[in-house]
Fold this protein.
Amino acid sequence: MTVEVIPGGLKVGEAKAPLVLGAMHYWRLDHHLWDNILEKVKGMGFNMIETYIPWSVHEKAPGRFDFGEEDPRKDIGSFLDLCAHKGVMALVRPGPHINSEITYFGYPERVLADPDCQSVSAQNTPVILPVPPRAFPVPSYASGKFYDEVATWFDAILPIIEKRKHPSGSVVAVQADNEMSLFFRANAYDHDYSPGAARLFCEFLEKRYGDIASLNRAYRSQYRDFSDAPMPRRFDARVKEDIPRYLDWAAYKEYYILYGLERITAMLRERGLSGIPVTHNYPEQLQRCPLNIAATERILDIQGFDMYPQRGQYELLKRGCLTAAAQSRLPFIPEFSSGCWLFSPPITFEDQRFTTLVAWMHGIKGISFYMLVERERWYGSPIARDGRIRQPNYDYYKKLNEIIKAHRLTALKRENDIILMNVRSYQYLDSASTLLEPLTTLFFRGFIGAVMECSEDPLGFEEPIPIAAEAWEKKWHKALRLAKYPFLIGDTEMSLDALTPYKVMIVPTFEFLGRAEQSKLAQFAERGGILAIGPKIPEYDETINLCTILKNKIEGEGESLENAPCATLYRLGKGKVVVFEALSDDEVEIKTTMDAVATLAGLKRHFPVLDPRVETSFHGDPGGDSGVLYVANPTNESRPASIELDGPRKFTDLWSGDIYEGKDSIEFEIEPYTVRMLEVR
Amino acid sequence: MLAKDPIIQDIDARGWTNLLSLMDRATIDKILGEEPAPRREKTSLFIIYQGDRVLKAFHSKKGSILSGFRWDGPDALEELAQKENVDRLTVLSRGALGNIHEKFQSGIQIEEDYVRQLFHLLDAVREEMSSGLRFYPAPKIPAVGYELLKQMFNLFVPKNASIVFYIFDAESVWTSLIIGVSERDFDLLTSHDALIADGFTFTDWRTDYKRILEAVGRKFRPSGLAMFATLKSFAQIIRSDKPLSALSAAQEANEVILDPLPTLIKTLLGAGRLLGR
């Protein structure tokens, strides 16, 4: 590769570049202003931009395109050349999906209107996305005809990009499609039931089971062929033995998305865009089926969640960042609010000032601000459409870039000894056991939770697992927040090697757990980790056949764990397993429980703060004793920040220049919705 | 009514945020200097049933109450609300959402006006509200169809014109909207920021509003309807039980200027005031 992904950014030739950039849409700006606007982008300290390249804007008729021959605003080649001339690198996003609030999301109307290109709903209708200014039928990413159409677009645009790829030009990365998520319509029984999707489902089952006899054993069925297995249209399981087919269906939804991403990526590579990273952006802040970022990491070089948070969404933003930090080789937010689109709750400059630093605090190492330059259907960016500067926003990004560079924020390391796991098998059951078919959108689900959406039938288990798993995950979050140990959010999809560096792995477990997942958990402990599980030790695998991989290894006399009354401690290889039969709702008890686990692992807190609502996060200089301490007040009132120290320290606020010194502690008042960045010496 | 590619640009961020904040009762309280009225959080119950079986009963305060829940069917909602002591009920027959999707998605055309497209969705929801989707209390959805709405658009909205709306806080623009209307559609949404881009300034909005209208006319289309108001007077109109009378009083006090005002709308406002609205 001429451009490589390295920790903290990109290696472009021999130079290291942080992946800190922002969006500018050439075709929505007067081309005479490109030069002036790029100067102002550079004036804020950015030396990289990103832009969509919209298929529908460039296509005049099937196979005929305008790349500036008629309308100079569409001269993408000149725009990229100008970027190169000005020393500005570019990440290009040629779709085919681009959204960007453009009518029909950048697909030509003729493609969307073609029934052979359309996704099909569970009710056998087209799948309509009701977004302004025109609702439209979404395409099927399993349709051969759709990919043929995409090829005509890529054949036209990619030679222009390829010619301007580093080192010949400004292009250092390319994005495959956009917010791949079944168009936010994540309910397992919404779509796609098109003929192409049916074929893909067969292919998925064949890869998973190899032969039909294995599938029949799992499904308790007698199908003659994989194509006999129906695509489920709602959750009708009555007993636990019914669930394998539904778990597969949810897993297939991920397969569908990954298939689309792989195919688009291959089309980019085949047309000359090799040697530079391929990126992708999943929609906002969601870490649940059908999105699987740990699996996506195996296909793409860089990926992450787009995030448009308001101040009050601190916890949601934090979760997204902790997930990206654990599961991405380069924790990156491909779109982070710098302004807002019209039909959304407004995201103010005050929101952005706070949330941007929250993202850095919780482990993000790369960020793309969407948008740096306002455009049609977007407001609130640091540069207006006509090149005017929005002064407070402009000054903020300028200062932020200065701090990122001067204090090498992308090179600092956040210490994380604990990983709290998402369990894919339970995610699949959660997704598959919806009772709201076919409605749930990704965004909607963020508000309602499993308890409002999922079946409450325990199916022969002690309790409905998706609802219980969500409750346990929330309790562990609370325990970690109160006990103030730094942690990240992992996923059972992650490789064992990626999990091994953590000292403690927390995994809510129930009666069943995937065979590979059980094995991974056991091996984590065998290698020396502390594995905290419960309330059940799994006895079945994902086909609901007996599977006691984990249980067999932890059989034997357990012992009690001090200060954790519902826990039993076992030894496993070089490590230990703690099985929690219950977790308290009480804040003091649950904090004590977390402390007990941390003590077992020999963990220490980094600069803990007394106030339970104020949070700290220390990012240290590898090999040194200095670094940056982030202190966040995510509430709407001022709070006292009293930070414990382990010896004499000097802190300098990187924004205000305020200095604090102390030996045992320092104290200051922290304003509402504020993150202080303190250089630690 | 809504163009396929409306131009939406030069929206002032603070002004847009201010405009949306008017939907919040607390904002109006603050503008009028009133103590926010205490608000009791309403309780709700969400039920999903299939045949005679209830699959989900979720109480907004208690969580799941499915265990031991007594269900007398979807026609006895008032009694159920009383029995469970909740303010609101949402009752969903399994399959109802699929019916709505099917009706909406099979009826819509890609080239249709967006408002027409949304009416396909509204019609599908309305139809299901007589069977698989029930609310208590029943929501008051105006019995307006797309055709009637379109007739109102044709009658009242000035064509080939701009609609101008400004609210001022002292001599600052607190929020503003400039909406463009072609012969058929709304095709432009912008704000005072578009005029600032041309170097436009003013000192006294009560006299300079005419210069604003001239600038809008030069840059976009001539104004067919315009409202300029102070923040407090606008909040009073919104809060008033008799908004047309409050508007009239504000006009007389020079706190609101309606200029230009099409004759038909002027007549309707006058009639409304006479009727005590």
